[in-house]
Every structure is written in C-alpha cells, then in structure tokens.
Write a structure and sequence with these properties.
CATH class: Alpha Beta
Structural class: alpha/beta
CATH superfamily: 5'-nuclease
Radius of gyration: 15 Å
Largest sheet: 5 strands, parallel
Mean pLDDT: 97
Strand content: 5-15%
CATH architecture: 3-Layer(aba) Sandwich
Strand order of the largest sheet: 3-2-1-4-5
Number of domains: 1
Distance between the termini: 21 Å
Length: about 140
C-alpha cells in the first residue's frame, strides 16, 4: 500500500493515543510511507505541545523527538513548491480547510497524480478526512475520526 500520513496520523506512531495501533499497522504495510516536508515542523510543535500540556515529561518529549528525527529520513518527504501552494489555496476555499491541512491534501493529490495510482491518505482531522474523501482519495481510518 502506498500511504500518505498527515501530522495528526503520524504523531500516533510516536505518542501512544487512540488510533496508534492502527497507524502502526498501516506503516508496517506501507511501501512507501510519505508525508509533506512541513510535517517535520508540525511534529516538533506537536511533541512540544505534549510536553507543555503534561502529556509527556520533558525527558519523554526529548526521547520522542529524537526517535522521530532518527526516522525522518525513512519517510518519503514530498516537497512544496508554488504549484503545491496554489493547489492548497484552492483547496482551502473549496473545503474550508486550514492552511497546512490544505498543503497536506495538495501534496497527497499531487503525489497520487504523479504516481498514476491510488494511495491511502491517513488523517485524524475530521475536516481534512472529509476533504480527502471528497477529492477521491482512499482515506484512513475508514470511518470518519
């Protein structure tokens, strides 16, 4: 399976929460697993937020961040260019998405178009899940989060 993960899905690999087992299973069956290059900054922000909210201790957060960074190169990292941003701009208006959510969707759609085959789009954001489905992507989880 060709898999694209947004940050709301990928974070579940590194912080155990509802959906983490599903994400682990999807990653074990993915060849390859891809994401946008913005995910790196979003993951750092998500892990830092987990520390701020006391979901992780500072030590756990640093360990989690090191783990994520050590695996970063193993993911297909999709670039963002003017065409991607232009597509994301249109998607924000069409689906009422936040900016980075639209960038994730634009990256996945561009990746699918370039491959010429279906891919699975993993997200735990309800609005993004629906937008991806409306754009014809196969979405994970199969039921809206």
């Amino acid at each position: 399976m060709i898999l694209y993960l947004d940050t709301s899905a990928l974070i579940k690999r590194y912080i155990t929460e509802s959906g983490s087992d599903d994400v682990q299973a999807w990653l074990s069956n993915a060849e390859p697993a891809s994401t946008s290059i913005i995910t790196r900054a979003e993951m750092g922000a998500a892990i830092t937020k987990a520390i701020r909210m006391n979901w992780l201790t500072a030590e756990q957060g640093q360990t989690t961040l090191k783990w994520f960074r050590s695996e970063w190169e193993s993911f297909g990292r999709l670039p963002i260019n003017e065409a991607t941003v232009q597509r994301a701009d249109a998607l924000t208006c069409q689906h009422n998405l936040r900016g980075y959510d639209a960038v994730h969707l634009a990256c996945a759609l561009t990746h699918r178009d370039g491959l010429g085959i279906a891919l699975k789009f993993a997200t735990y954001d309800r609005g993004l899940w629906q937008a991806a489905k409306d754009e014809g992507l196969q979405v994970l989880p199969e039921a809206q989060p």
